[in-house]
Design brief:
seven-stranded mixed β-sheet, 9 helices, binds D-malate, 11 strands, putative 2-phosphosulfolactate phosphatase, globular, alpha/beta, 19% strand, four-stranded mixed β-sheet
């Protein structure tokens, strides 16, 4: 099995993901929010790459059926129902709702994945379920770390390392590119200390400064939600 970890997604990669199997990671916080919302009963997640696109999608839906959600600079967008903190996405709020979500980095990645084969959504919260599904599909995979404003985000890299660690336990030969090898080294160094590590990342520090420290405590829970979610036809839902 070949695993290619990608630390940055650039415009020139637009056609790159055609027919590929892909895992998307934005641990802080879009993919963690997506997994929490689905586990708590949201009907579907519609990722939007901009505020304008999110508002446009909402205009075509019945008001009682959706929640308009997202952040810019980690804060809720003016006029939106929810921000991008997984703690906001409780069963009471999201049960049965379509969640339109736009985030600074994570939700933009899906633009490139409309023609991919299998697209799985990974967070610490569902990492073993994702690793197991990758083994079940038994193919080569690209793992995309969404990054932060064009910068490397090591919170994504440590999770890709944990996925690789899981695969290595079960698959005879996992072939890694340089970013994959680096992710694995990073995970092995901080295994057992994920919360501490997340709090010390650049992105973690920004979240703490903006009052979201509890999000980090929540996101650091490995395998809290053993679900697999996938992106198909512009929607993200639980894969049965
Ligand atoms: C992103 O997409 O960059 C993040 O989810 C931002 C955040 O921390 O809310």
């Amino acid at each position: 099995m070949k695993i290619e970890v990608i630390f940055f997604v650039h415009n020139q990669l637009e056609d790159y993901f055609y027919n590929r199997n892909v895992v998307v990671i934005d641990v802080l916080r879009a993919t963690s929010t997506i997994i929490t919302a689905l586990a708590n009963g949201a009907k579907t997640i519609i990722p939007a790459s901009s505020v304008e696109e999110a508002v446009k999608i909402a205009k075509n839906l019945e008001r009682s059926t959706y929640l308009l959600c997202g952040e810019r600079h980690t804060k809720i967008i003016d006029g939106f129902d929810l921000g991008n903190s997984p703690l906001e996405f409780s069963p009471e709020k999201v049960e049965g709702k379509k969640i339109i979500l736009t985030s600074t980095n994570g939700t933009k990645v899906f633009e490139y994945l409309r023609k991919s084969k299998n697209v799985l959504i990974a967070s610490t919260l569902n990492v073993s379920a994702v690793s197991n599904k990758m083994m079940e599909i038994d193919s080569d995979w690209s793992i995309i770390c969404s990054g932060r404003d064009g910068f490397f985000d090591s919170s994504d890299a440590i999770l890709s390392g944990l996925i690789i660690k899981n695969l290595n336990r079960e698959v005879n030969v996992v072939e890694l590119n340089d970013a994959g090898k680096t992710s694995l080294l990073l995970y092995e160094k901080y295994e057992g200390n994920i919360l501490k590590y997340l709090k010390d990342t650049d992105h973690g520090k920004i979240l703490i400064a903006n009052g979201f420290e509890k999000d980090l405590d929540f996101i650091a829970q490995v395998d809290k939600f053993p679900i697999v979610a996938s992106f198909t036809n512009n929607y993200i839902g639980i894969l049965k």
